[in-house]
Amino acid sequence: MTSYQRFIHPYLPQTETQIETMLESIGVSTIGELFSEIPEKLRLKEKLNLPLSHSEQETLLNVKKILGKNKTVDEISSFLGAGIYQHFIPTVVSTLLSRSEFYTSYTPYAPEISQGMLQALWEYQSMIAEITRLDLVNSSMYDMATALGEAALMCTRVTRKEVFLVPSYLQPERFQTLLTYTQGPGISVKTYPFDKETGKADLYALAELAKSHKNQLSGIYLENPNFWGVIEEDVQEVEKITHNMEGIFVVGIDPISLGILTSPGEYGADIAIGEGQSIGLPMNFGGPLLGIFAVKNDRRLSRAMPGRIIGISTEVKSSKRAFTMTLQTREQHIRREKATSNICTNNALCALASTIFLSLLGPIGLKRLAEICMARTTHLLEELRSIEGIKSPYFSGVPFKEFIFQLDSKFSSKELDFFLQSNNIQGGLSLQKYFPELRQCYLSAVTEMAKITDIDQFTQKIREFILKHGG
Amino acid sequence: MFKQTTWEKTLIFELSTSGRIGHQVGELSGKEKSLLNQVKQRISPKLLRRELPDLPEVSELSVIRHFTRLSQMNYGIDTGFYPLGSCTMKYNPKICDLVTTFPEAQNIHPYQDPSTVQGSLQIMYKLAKWLAELSGMSKVTLQPAAGAHGEYTGMMIVRKYHESKGSLNKKTEIIIPDSAHGTNPATATMCGFKTVVIPSNEDGCVDLEALRLAVTDKTAGLMLTNPNTLGIFEQNIEEIINIIHEVDGLTYYDGANFNAIMGKVRPGDMGFDIVHFNLHKTFATPHGGGGPGAGPVGVISRLEPFLPVPTVDFDPKTKLYFFQYDHPQSIGKVRSYFGNFSIILRAYTYILRLGYEGLIAVSEMAVLNANYMKTLCQTIKGFSVPFGKDSFCMHEFVLSSQQILKDTNISALDISKFMIDRGFHPPTIYFPQIVPEALMIEPTETEPKKMLDGFIAILRDISKFVYSDQEDQRNQILEAPCNVSVRRIDDVKAARNPILSYRMLKQQKE
């Protein structure tokens, strides 16, 4: 006779006999007694509305059936980007990520037994340091949006000033996240405009804005390539403006672009942030992602940095190489309310994916990937340029892997959306919703995943649409 | 006998040979080459990278071997027992990993038309409903990326609530017990609040008198974990919450310890206003060596307007799921897009797999395992349970080895290192800070009795060794760990001379 009606399940190993023995050791006769510390009044009495246990087979069927309602980008010809990109992920990345010694471990609090993850994260920091030419990299933030938020907070921590300048043409998710993050410490976010012709930062306006906040400026943020996909070429001028005002120069990067573009470290950035999704992570409907956070090697900055950092050391009693979490006195578990950030769980496994990705590509592969993105984007841009009724590119600045085209006001963008959708094409992100001045404008991304036939089909369909509507 | 695989700690950079590749990126066609040249000529030469980044140049097999070897020098739940208190390191079911690899989960862009992502939205909608039901909250957002990020979201909601009432300038303080996770005070600071720390009473619970003294008109809210970090259920919870509510403060439930109470008691019924969940703890999604996790947040109905945008809603007319952005009082966004979908999907799968009755059994077995270990561990010479010695713990308990330190000068750190040599991941040590020489043990429900007995046996050995008059037995503990890929690490050197990247290593060598 047992007192406990056991719920038999493969995840729950204790048998009735063992449960009996354990209860006896504790000195109680039922499991219910163990919950007697919870006041009777509070204990749940009614039954909750939750699903019943499903077998593994049933669970798989259920999930498959629901997910089956999704249409993947494999089934659509997609030119969506705007922060999340479709890139090829070499098989080796998922093979290695599925080593469960990595993915079923916790944060490496016991370093001796966690050297594998620690070394991999140190190598991640190293690779990001190589591509950004900034020596200090944390072992990940949640995404680029929160990395931007944390960068703004860090600028204020370092300078003790609270005006942070950002482009008015910032990715909307990033902008909204930044507005949330800056509320707590009372940082004032001001925006500078873009040049209406080139799509690059309006340097004159930026300089004026910076001047008008002369003694309050904590930092200036520039994204390169920017949200319009345009390469910001006046980076050195922005660097001068920022540093002349004693602000911190923060640059947002696409890691792949650094295969061809000069690194932020070389043009004087103090902090570089970025989205690492494009280097080895699936799009996953927008998460998990990988927030890149790199900082110039400067004591004033390193002490104010958020996030976990892995360092290299030795054994206490030998010169044998060993890895460990370091500079922890900045972190919440030690500094509590004085910590540089509350971040604890980060996106370590995503950082590992990117490390494997960058190891596979190497310097030549990264450069080639950047070139292919740039060439194919230019290809689509040029194809669309030849169509009457389409302004392509909308901005004259040089694109990296994204550009904007505009549909003439003679035509309805709603109809175009519908037409493309019925032809199984997602042509790009309609920008008007976020930026009303960009009427009937689309932001389209082209990566190595786009086949020449996809590009041809896309332009062909746009031609068809224009003809059909009297163009 | 445990012996971790040990390989030479060669950096991947040290394997590099110029000209090797590990993956072949495609070729440019003739037309693309000429397009590329044209466009490159338009870029200011200052902006064209002159020197390629010094990334390693290695073959595909080298990459495989390098990271396979690293994985062999890493200890996960799949390797063995991981009683890291507060972290709920339970078995992560493989079916939950499998579903995240489906193209219908992975190959979805967040800006796709909602009609093409109905599956993902349905999963999110359902999981949010289930979490709300389990916690007694009215509505749940899945946006936060981690537990601390959930705390952040919750505290921003507290901020917005007081702002909406025009009292934010007055409501400046968050009350947090001294036993709380470090993320709680760090979060309060990030949200612009001042932390007021209250001491625990002799039972390790909130000291009601201290709480009453700390609560003023400035109190914006309270952050509390229940069961608390000592594994003790705060029996005065209703009174604690009333004290905060009397001054119009909000109460925040840190869900790190939710594994103890599923189907037994709900934070909503205790009176909490805001709750976060750690999907990577309670709902068995793996922690990935540090993340990613997910930290959904639930709120009571009057706080719904403040949730981050967008919420996932269902239109019964069209029978379609959709993103609702129209929440004018929302705190805004706390990150990009909608949440860590692949973690959300894992939790959905886990809940379905266990079901309601299974989740109750999870909490019961977690509590049984913890009490069994606590009962036996505290009888071992040198170890004690300073708080809640005679009561039942919930899913974890905090052991102290202070007596051992006094008697033998052997610390909790030494003890934890010895556990490694016996093939166990050590418990959380030196936390919560109110317990001297703390060893915080959370066995979880997925460990068989034999494993628990094995761990208890090691504590007995430790006790025997530390009190032994044989030098070599004491030394086994002081010298530990010996059976892993590195022995004790010089943390001081790591901090004094930071080498945080290969670039810094090269600079030092020069």
Walk me through the structure.
The complex is a heterodimer of chains A (471) and B (510). Chain A is an alpha/beta fold and 471 residues long. Chain A folds into three domains: 12-44, no CATH class; 77-84 and 362-468, Aspartate Aminotransferase, domain 1 (Alpha-Beta Complex); 91-357, 3-Layer(aba) Sandwich (Aspartate Aminotransferase, domain 2), CATH 3.40.640.10. Chain A contains 15 helices and 15 strands. In chain A, the strands form four sheets. Chain A has a seven-stranded mixed β-sheet with strand order 2-8-7-6-5-3-4, sandwiched between helices. A four-stranded antiparallel β-sheet of chain A has the order 11-12-15-14, with helices on one face. A two-stranded parallel sheet of chain A has the order 1-13. In chain A, helix 8 (172-181) links the parallel strand 3 and strand 4. In chain A, helix 4 (91-97) runs antiparallel to helix 13 (348-385). Chain B is an alpha/beta fold. Chain B has helices at residues 30-42, 60-72, 94-100, 103-106, 118-135, 147-164, 183-190, 208-214, 237-246, 267-270, 341-377, 402-408, 412-421, 449-466, 471-478, 491-496, 502-509; strands spanning 139-141, 173-177, 194-198, 219-225, 250-254, 274-276, 297-299, 311-315, 320-324, 397-400, 428-429, 438-441. In chain B, strand 4 (219-225), helix 9 and strand 5 form a beta-alpha-beta unit. The longest helix of chain B is centred in the C-terminal third of the chain and has 37 residues, at 341-377. The two termini of chain B are 43 Å apart. The interface between A and B is large, with 208 and 212 residues.
